[in-house]
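re the bet — no i am not wrong, look at it urself. input seq straight from the record:
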Amino acid sequence: MREFDLSRPVYSLSDAAEILAVSRSTLGWWLEGGERRGRRYDPVLRAAATGDTSLT
């Protein structure tokens, strides 16, 4: 059975957004969360924001 290293970055934010057919900004919000109008939104795809835009 082949093992995969899930900690190794494979896709850039732009490449992943294109593959998933979502905007780069949407995927960025899903990965890192953000703040809008004084309200903080947590990341959707990660437990916490990492500041890293590479995807595994």
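see?? The CA atoms of residues 17 and 27 lie 6 Å apart. told u. also The mean pLDDT is 89. so pay up
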